[in-house]
Amino acid sequence: MFPDRVGRVVLDGVIDADFYVEPIWSKSIIDTDPIIDSFPKYCHEGKEKCTLYRPGDSYEDIKTRFIDAQANLRAHPLSFIGPTSHYPYIFTIDILRQILFSALYTPMTSFNLIGLLVNAIIQEDFQTLEFLFPLIPKEIFCNTQPEYAYPDDTQLGVVCGDKRYPVSTV
Q: 170: which of 58, 65, 154, 164 lies 20 to 30 Å off by Cα?
């Protein structure tokens, strides 16, 4: 956006720039599902650092648990009364997919959150889900994004500033 202010650049991803600036994202997010599907691999490599890992788990065990949690949530959204707040919550597959997609922008900080979240869904741990619910962005991208989602303005500038057309309808 300001090439005269740039001394060095670090390239963190390669995409087809022509597709990226189109009014739709379909071609610029081709690798989203494969990246999300890699979570069980990294969870297995992290062992006890990943909440979804169980002692003795193989990669396939974690992958099955991860996929089954999504399928179960799709078929049966979790609805519960928060143990602390006594507010009603409905946790759907759409909310989980939104979180997984948002996590792709900050994988280093989101890894533990994903493991914790999926594990809470599997165990129907409503205490943890209630704790995590305020951390879930209600809108994605350029709308009312909480401060923790973009720790600095750089990513927000890239995500929201370099498209020819508005990313958001709000």
A: 154
